[in-house]
Amino acid sequence: MAENTIIIGAYWGDEGKGKIVDLLAADADWVARFNGGDNAGHTIVAEGKKTILHILPSGAVQGKNVAIGPDVFVNPEALLKDLQSVKDYKGRIVVDERAHVIMPYHLTLDDGGKLGTTKRGIGPAAEDRASRTRDITFSDLISEKFKEKLHGVLKEKELMLRNTGLNSMADYENEIYRTSNEYASRVRQLTGNAGLELHNAIQRGEKVILEGAQGALLDIVHGTRPYVTSSNTTAGGAFANLGLNPRHFKVVGIAKAYPTRVGEGPFPTELKNELGRRIQEDGHEFGATTGRPRKAGMPDFVALRYSARINSFDEIAVTKLDVLAGKEFTAAVKYEKGGETTENFPFRLEGWQPVYGKTYYFESFTEAEAERMCKEGYTSLPEGMREYLEDVAAAIKTPISMVSLSPKREITVVKDALEETRKCLTWLM
User: What's the CA gap between 316 and 254, in Å, rounded?
Assistant: First the structure.
């Protein structure tokens, strides 16, 4: 891979970013996580083994150096569990000293609320970050003054915690201090400056992949507010938070062949019928971290255009096309509300209904057939699949560089695999 790359989910998350990062990581030196927390997991299937990571970047599966940036909310327990999942790991791990620690009281105070969050403590931790005084960073966690800071934070939260049924604040504080000290002893050697490490790696000519959690439409600024996550999920946010030069990176969007969404919030193309159920089942649309079922919808060119614009995609990878095989489907080309139509993605999505374009269909195929298509290149893909891919590229004016036909790393059509593939996959309409 010739360039440093940032991987961005183009919908509401769960697009298969983990697989694409794992695929590209073979040629990388560093893989960095730039946002989110253990509310978003990555599932990687490689060499017959499935690995689920919740906070550690996907590159750890291949033993790459990995970094966790300052806009990540880290539950130390989840981080240590991930390390057990890749216990033969030999690469470097750097957790930014400014990354925010999800403390036990964040979990206690997170009830999910009307936004339907994962109750992983990320929202309360983000509120503390915004306060600028109540947040606990990794720098605080390993500091000699941690006990003093913890005491001050808990004094501010005492009333809220007592309202949850807590009896003894002293016992609660002592228990948190004890477990936090245990975590600090295990993460102290990992704590550093992630942005500086990545900057220096780029200066040395090493290749870096930045890996996002969630999707662009859940961005705290540009997403479907208020039903969004607590951090930046877009490319611009990643560069700002890590302090890296965007000119050093290629931006690759990951667009699942159909969108899905978990939790609350408007979802214009949601399928509340048998087709939606079949897509959910065939696509195994259940959260890697929570197990929650994901709502499935028709492809949405309006949402993809918006995502391509706010992230400045250089190219996209289309994943899970195998799930749509044998199913007749269409794609939203604009929205309608009260007689008004738009091709732009509205800030307030409620009430807008999809206006669909043409219908697509291609026959089901076996894994062996998928492997053959990957060897033979783009022209061997079914005609209906190619028609859909070409319409996606035209709708968002972005070339397609990868087409995933299976959860397995190796079953992916990549534009550089064959000369014919390069000709046919790099459309720029």
Answer: 6
